[in-house]
């Protein structure tokens, strides 16, 4: 299912139109399987596949940082790189849900009993104080290629 999500994400607009019914059917199957997945990494990959079926260019490729437990970011002010711990209690991270998508993904994780995934999402979609210059920026916006 995860591979199908990546394939759908990289499909041309013409191919997405041609295979719209198939993509919709695969998305439905993925959504139905969310409550049944065996572990947190499989849950994240399935959510990522759903985002791929939806055509989300960013999170259809980047959500699996949750499985890595960390993500590297670059401060928009001083260009310093920092490693963000998505699973711990890093005091430089202010947990949050910075978008409607973040709220929806977090709700799905908590609704299906994936508390650790939900916690990781609040960190991935939270804000961070740069350890070098102190500017606060949104971690998810960095991955999305824009800063707030």
TrEMBL record:
Q: Which domain of life is it from?
A: Bacteria
Give the protein name, as stated in the record: Uncharacterized protein
> Whose protein is this, by species?
Couchioplanes caeruleus subsp. caeruleus
